[in-house]
Amino acid sequence: MSELSKIEDGQVVSMDYTLQVDGEVVDSSEGREPLEFLQGAGNIIPGLEQELYGMAVGESKKVVIQPDEGYGIIDPDAFVEVPRDQFPTNIPMEVGTEITVTDQDNNPMNARIDSLDDDNVILDFNHPLAGKELHFDVKIVGLRDATDEENEHGHSHDGGHTH
Ligand code: ZN
Fold first, then answer.
1. Are residues 19 and 61 in the same domain?
2. 113 CA from centroid of ligand 1 (Å)
3. pTM
4. 8 A C-beta contact, residue 45 and residue 71
5. Which CATH number fits the domain that encloses residue 55?
6. Is residue 163 part of a domain?
7. What residues flank ion ligand 1 with Cβ within 5 A?
């Protein structure tokens, strides 16, 4: 494909990025391989995917994304009170401690301790970036047509991913 191609659905995009929240870098591809994903397949957050259409290799952009197009707004129902004695004793009982619990179907779910008293712990199951405005700096470093198999699977097969 020509170097003048622009990002559209069905293309595998390689992208360097830095994500800042509240003025601090919380994620970046710096020092790593670029992020690779299939455009139009919902591999990345919707607000960012939307802003990438029409970009070409070598182009950079700053994108500000509101919570509802990013990691969602904070869900008050995602705070759950759990009796303190249900936690293993090796877990630090402090605000901010990250823990993984399993739901009824044995799926792992990440939570953080939001608050606690002598008897109970409030766990916050919201995504850590829920409710946050996301500030991305992105640079497109590669672009190619997806293979039929990638389109069928809905993801890129670069980076050793083969299923
Ligand atoms: Zn696959």
1. yes
2. 35
3. 0.79
4. yes
5. 3.10.50.40
6. no
7. 153
